[in-house]
């Protein structure tokens, strides 16, 4: 049966980089059924809804979704979409490539961020004119599920350099109950599975990562910490145009570049398609096309090292020229 892949370009450069990623997927002899759907500012302007019910349902029923970016409506779109695919982990690789200027060229780290709870699932309250509060949610079940995913991830050799262990970052010395639970459950699963896991306080991690990223491979984090620390790692590798991400669910998944709509360059045909194309590689792997996903990565690396490059990487090639070069090297 064909894999049903929903394609949502969204706004801004999403309209340029998502078609590029689809072109790469189409280069393979895989039976995809692409279904186009709408979300974001443009559809909100037209219909009043940033995420039409039809889009939500199409995404929920599909095998995977490739998403570009949404502008002002980003939170109204992406949070429900993560829910539609039942995502429990956000996978954020940050890898520096030869030939691309990076603050830390040796960076090759994959963040596995808890995607359903923490402070993002907490409830904010204004209790008085002086006092606002936030509750934080941590369950053993979500912590264990994330840890199980991490064990499989490194067990399958998907960690940088095939590393077979992971690091858990937390702040359980202060948040003894919530991060204490998170830490305990993650480490317990690793031990049950016979997987090497070490731990790091997240503030110490934030210092040590930029000083020497080579000491880390796969990093497992609570939701907010994963958000912040993966952005920190993004800063080490040379540009938003390179960074893919995956919201992985039990059956389904949502794959999207880390960057937004880039209104400053939207519509000019000069956006870097790499982040979207690498998101498509993650989508391929998620659907079991592991060999093809690897071929996309290799082609992207080859183009980054000596092929045409877009303006953000100091070149003057268009989105289409870079995409054609990637397809050519598949
Ligand atoms: P949004 O609110 O949608 O996130 P933004 O203004 O924050 O929009 P981003 O998309 O986050 O814009 O991009 C930040 C900067 O990085 C912009 O200057 C943008 O041009 C650049 N940038 C982001 N993605 C790419 C890309 N794929 N190719 C080239 N430049 C990019
Ligand atoms: Mg942005």
From TrEMBL:
<keyword id="KW-0560">Oxidoreductase</keyword>
<feature type="domain" description="Isopropylmalate dehydrogenase-like">
    <location>
        <begin position="4"/>
        <end position="326"/>
    </location>
</feature>
<protein>
    <submittedName>
        <fullName>Isocitrate/isopropylmalate family dehydrogenase</fullName>
    </submittedName>
</protein>
<dbReference type="Pfam" id="PF00180">
    <property type="entry name" value="Iso_dh"/>
</dbReference>
<dbReference type="InterPro" id="IPR024084">
    <property type="entry name" value="IsoPropMal-DH-like_dom"/>
</dbReference>
<dbReference type="GO" id="GO:0016491">
    <property type="term" value="F:oxidoreductase activity"/>
</dbReference>
<comment type="similarity">
    <text>Belongs to the isocitrate and isopropylmalate dehydrogenases family.</text>
</comment>
